[in-house]
Design goal:
The protein contains 12 helices and 15 strands. With 368 residues, the protein is α/β, with parallel strands linked by helices.
């Protein structure tokens, strides 16, 4: 996404389109401000989250000072344009459409050109941020935990609030005519996952199945379909016995797919934090602080924010977070590793296309 003053143009790997000028949002209403304070309060306990002197200093700077410092830091690092990577949890063109207005806003406010890059897969985007081939990545919680474990200098600077919450749910779905009435009925049946790096499309449902005494690797026939849309559609077509998706996929799928009304929720898993907005190693903290500041201005509390977020109708706004926000994912992963046994640990962040032993192809389904 290319920004150059008020005559900005969007540059992405797959699209080129003009975007409206971004203006600073008006003041918050008292009710909306209270809601955001409540959401932030649920995210972290200040007494348990000591700020560094640098973080504290950055927080007191004006927008102009902070954005100027960020631009100077990027120039010193030889960065003329930022590369912003997105996870292909739905079709790439839809991902670009959803996030372009947000990235436009950030580009305008910080004053830096930004290009959008959609990963080929969850694993591809994770590798790009680990290796520093992109500067920013919006990673699913589990992909972030894996990336940060491999490269501890990767920094998370923000997450989003959706439907008034900092967390979301995972649903295990089945078809009305599948004959599945309980999780026990899933043994030795086809189960559609999204990707081995997907939190709601693998890690969370895997933990839920293990808690119910079902091994998600050896006792169901796992299929990794690559996106939440593909999982929903496979369930809607009754091509698999069940599938796991993030909670909003159900309403989205029912609107999009004519067969979606035949999909029902079989189980609900524990809630998990939303995506991690991350900065690659080698860029200074001030850059992340500036990006977080620009994102925090976007909110459904005002008309401009609602316009910016209309393609991501569930998102209300953004909040700054740190690495501890995702400790719950590390705990979830530890439970899954323990449940699957030591041999499974090396495969937890393995290739997305790798199928569990004993699995084959399901007719009518492309297995990435």
């Amino acid at each position: 996404m290319s920004r150059s003053g008020s005559s900005a143009k969007t540059s992405v790997d797959m699209l080129d389109s003009a975007r409206p000028e971004v203006k600073q949002a008006p003041a918050l209403s008292a009710l909306a401000a209270a809601l955001l304070v409540l959401c932030i309060g649920c995210t972290s306990d200040p007494s348990n989250s000591p700020e560094s002197a640098e973080e504290s200093a950055l927080g007191t700077q004006s927008d102009q000072q902070l954005f100027q410092r960020a631009r100077a830091s990027l120039r010193a690092a030889g960065v003329e344009r930022l590369r912003w990577g997105l996870t292909p949890y739905v079709a790439p063109d839809e991902i670009i459409e959803r996030y372009s207005p947000i990235i436009d806003w950030v580009s305008e406010r910080v004053g830096i050109d930004i290009d959008i890059h959609v990963g080929d897969s969850y694993q591809d985007l994770e590798r790009q941020i680990i290796e520093g081939r992109i500067d920013i990545a919006v990673l699913g919680p589990y992909a972030y935990v894996g990336a940060q474990s491999e490269n501890p200098d990767i920094r998370v600077f923000a997450s989003h609030v959706a439907l008034g919450s900092t967390t979301y749910g995972t649903y295990i779905l089945t078809h009305d005519d599948s004959g599945i009435e309980s999780l026990e009925d899933l043994r030795d049946r086809d189960f559609a996952f999204v990707d081995r790096l997907s939190t709601s499309g693998w890690l969370s449902p895997a933990a839920h199945l293990l808690e119910r005494g079902i091994n998600p690797v050896s006792e169901v026939r796992g299929r990794y379909l690559g996106s939440h849309e593909q999982v929903f559609d496979a369930v809607a077509a009754n091509q698999v016995a069940a599938g796991a998706v993030y909670s909003a996929s159900v309403s989205e799928g029912r609107r999009r797919n004519p067969m979606g009304n035949h999909v029902r929720i079989l189980a609900k898993c524990a809630r998990i934090p939303y995506d991690a907005y991350t900065l690659r190693a080698g860029l200074e903290e001030v850059v992340g602080a500036a990006l977080a500041r620009a994102l925090s201005e976007i909110s459904t509390r005002d008309r401009r924010g609602r316009q910016t977020l209309k393609s991501l109708a569930r998102i209300n706004g953004f909040i700054p977070v740190d690495d501890r926000h995702y400790d719950v994912i590390r705990q979830l992963e530890a439970r899954v590793v323990k449940g699957l046994g030591p041999a499974a640990e090396s495969d937890m962040h393995g290739p997305s296309s790798k199928q569990p032993s004993g699995s084959g192809k399901t007719p009518g389904i492309d297995n990435p």
